[in-house]
Amino acid sequence: MDTRIVPLAAERGAALEASYARAVAATRRRTILTLAAIAVLAVAAGFAAEVRPLVLLANLGGFTAYLGRILPPLTIANLGGDLAEWYWGLPKWAALLGETLLMAYLGTLLGGLAAFLLCFGAAANLARSRFGCVLTRRALEIFRTVPEVVFALIFVIAFGLGPMVGVMALAIHTAGALGKLFSEVVENIDMKPVEGLTAAGASRVEAIRFAVLPQVLSNFASYGLLRFEINVRGAGVMGFVGAGGIGQELLVAIRNFYYTDVSAILLMIIATVVLIDLGTERLRHHLIGLEQAR
Amino acid sequence: MREAPDLAALKARYPQAFRVAWAARLTGLGGLGAVLALAAFAMVRLDFSAARILNGLGRLGEFALLMLPPSPEGHLADFLRALAETLGIAFLGTLTAACLALPVAFLAARNVVPNPVLHFAVRRALDVMRSVDVLIWALIWINVVGLGPFAGALAIACADLGALGKLFSEAVETVDRKAAEGVTASGGGALHRIRFGLVPAVLPVLGSQVLYFFESNTRSATIIGIVGAGGIGQYLTELIRVLELQQVAFLVLMVLVTVALIDAVSGRLRRALIGGEPR
Fold first, then answer.
1. Does residue A46 belong to the interface with chain B, where contact is any CB pair within 8 Å?
2. Which terminus of chain B has fewer Cβ atoms in its 10 Å neighbourhood, N or C?
3. What's in the keyword line of the UniProt record (chain B) (predicted)?
């Protein structure tokens, strides 16, 4: 068979090029318009946020100087002594860091429990009434939109200072965030087992236990671990408003210019968060593997 | 009339189905026990007390009544200005983070820069930036540029740079590499490969992630005022401390409505970007 590429007729070629040029021009116009809109918004935001580039430029040296100042004077000759002096408060800080982790754990657990109880009511396929479904969803939305620190501020006044308040604030926010994710997981299940069990006379609770839970549990656990990771970070700053954990100590160190303390505590927090990140990531991959093997 | 099933006969016929899986049950119970034991230990360690909770709940009930009806009590103009400041902080912080994260992400992506040392260094640096909370970044920036919303915008930019850099580089790594190979095959250089092979494929994904972050940053920007970095948080802290709860409720409502609006708008933009079905 003989196939040859026939060149386009001149006028068709011209028409094609013209339409190509039009398409490119249209894209270009849209890009320029988008960029212009973003630029206008950025300038407006700059005014609202009192951006002072000159101050930043003048003080950028200050930032590096600050970094230099918070780093401890470590010498090779006296490394052990210098390290000991840098981490003079290690026992106290370690205890506070442990407290922070426990806060994150308990907050995630209690919030996860609440989310678990609420998510079936908020899922469109399992909710008993339309009204209850909408109500639950709105409640969850409020729980997760109000930042946890705001809950902590209010709770500190109601319950008094201390880590218990931090746990409650974390738990409420977690309930809102996880409740939404959980209910989305529930909405995506295969409904056939539920129908089968209901047809065989199972109650709602039995249907959830034997038809829904096996489908969703590993996803729930994975989301819970992700939330734990986020809550460790959140628990670290609860101390800023007096709700326990290591935040109080860090705030005092930064406000009072205890420079080397700042770097010591920050490093401990960063190391903990990174370690937990890695650990939960591994666990979650394991869980996802289980899910896919099924 | 329905007959009761003959359980004994069924058991004899299908022993498999009635066997109790003791091993699985024990592991499950053991895991649950460990979780509960740790929770009990945490409650003791963190001074949970029923009396405090009951007292506090009573006071919370009082607060809830004091919040009604939400009202600005003549500070509406101040509140709106603070809200605009909050939105400005969130927008500028997200924009700065996105602009900085784009080049960094290409450096951290394995398929663009095949240098394991650089890749590792950039990734760890992003991890460190990400693990420091926004409020801590705000405290640090206040030392550099002074109190005010500018410090807040810089704080959000720093915290987000870590998160966005990681997400962007993952998006770049998972992109279909056929387009880039095509560009190379028709004689394009390394920069052409990035411009025509990678950027068009990842830009919509990145755009939608940036929109998500803008949403969550609006929430972060509301609390950044607690440490003095501008926005509505400053009013929120002061008003909660002096128990002006009607105004607090009004502020919280303002934030809720704003976040819901941004949610709706960015959801629409995101769908337009990805070109998915409107739901």
1. yes
2. N
3. Membrane, Transmembrane, Transmembrane helix, Transport
- The two tokens of residue A279 are 């650990």
Report if residue A77 sits inside a domain.
Answer: no
B86, B221 Cβ separation under 8 angstroms: yes
Task: Note down the domain range covering A28.
Answer: 10-52
Task: Look at residue B35 and give its three-state secondary structure.
Answer: helix
pLDDT of residue B279: 37
Name the band, by pLDDT with cuts 50, 70 and 90, for residue B202. Answer: confident
Q: Between these two residues, A59 and A180, which has the higher pLDDT value?
A: A180
A260 shares its domain with A139: yes
Q: Is the pLDDT score of B1 beyond 60?
A: no
Residue A139 lies in a domain: yes
Is the Cβ–Cβ distance between B96 and B150 less than 8 Å? no
Indicate which of A71, A97, A157, A251 best probes the interface with B, i.e. most B CBs within 10 Å of its own CB: A157
Q: Are A128 and A262 within one domain?
A: yes
Q: How far is A104 from chain B (nearest CA, A)?
A: 10
Whether the pLDDT of residue B278 is over 70: the answer is no
| Token couple for A79 | 């490394």
User: What is the rounded CA–CA span in Å between residue A111 and residue B226?
Assistant: 24
What ipTM score was computed for the predicted complex, to two decimals?
A: 0.80
Task: Output helix, strand, coil percentages for chain A, rounded to the nearest 5.
Answer: 80, 0, 20
- Residue A236 falls inside a structural domain: yes
Q: Which domains can be identified in chain B, with CATH numbers?
A: 20-66 (no CATH), 76-274 (1.10.3720.10)
Contacts of B55 in chain A (CB under 8 A): 159
Torsion sign over Cα B196, B199, B204, B205: positive
Residues A154 and A35 in one domain: no
Q: Rounded mean pLDDT of B5-23?
A: 79
Q: Which residues of B touch A237 (CB under 8 A)?
A: 133, 135-136
Separation of alpha carbons A163 and A142, rounded Å: 23
pLDDT at position B151 is 87
| CB within 8 Å: A244 and B132 | no
Residue A100 lies in a domain: yes
* d(CA A65, nearest CA chain B) in Å: 9
CB B175 within 8 A of CB B109: no
Claim to verify: residue A34 and residue A131 sit in the same structural domain: no
